[in-house]
Amino acid sequence: MTLLGQRATLEATPSRYRWEFGDGESTSTTQPGAPYPRLEVTHDYLRKGTYQPRLATTYTGRYRVGNGGWRAIPGTVTVQGGAQALRAIEARPTLVDLRVRVTSSGSAGWRR
Asked: 21, 26, 92, 100 - which has most CB atoms within 10 Å?
């Protein structure tokens, strides 16, 4: 952009992420997370149902005029993202009583 005949450059950088999970729980991170399967930001829902999680991103800023040095902009700006519908379902793990039996010859067999 041009300001008073001088080229001015603005830069906004994400500095904090606030994950609101829609069930009253939230967490803040300085990293944006990652695509599946890296699982950098996770949350366990205690009940099945529909939730409205959302993400708020806080930015810091800086600017420069012409080829001059960068100057920090005081303060931060937080942008609240829109809620996204999420359905949490119930998964039921089932444990079975399988035990490994090793014979004297060293072979293994399953026994119940």
From this structure: 21
Cis peptide before 93 (omega within 30 of 0): no
With a CB cutoff of 8 Å and minimum separation 6, the contacts of 84 are: 52, 53, 54
Asked if residue 110 has pLDDT above 60, the reply is: no
In DSSP notation, 69-89 reads --EEEEEEEEEEPPP--EEE-
Q: How far is CA 3 from CA 9, 12, 74, 83, 105, in A?
A: 10, 18, 19, 36, 85
Question: Model-level pTM?
Answer: 0.73
In whole angstroms, give the CA distance from residue 102 to residue 88.
42
Q: Tokens for 109?
A: 């067999």
Q: Give dist(CA 39, CA 34) in Å, integer.
A: 7
